Amino acid sequence: MRLKSVVFIFLFSGIAFAQTNVVTTESENLTIEMDESIQNLIKEKEVAFCNAPPPPPLVKEFCHGARIQVFYSKNRQESEAKLKELKTLFPDEFSNWEYVSPDYKVKLGYFSSREDAQSTLTKARRAFPSALIVEETVRCHLVD
Question: In terms of CATH, what superfamily is 62-142?
Answer without folding.
Answer: Sporulation related repeat (3.30.70.1070)
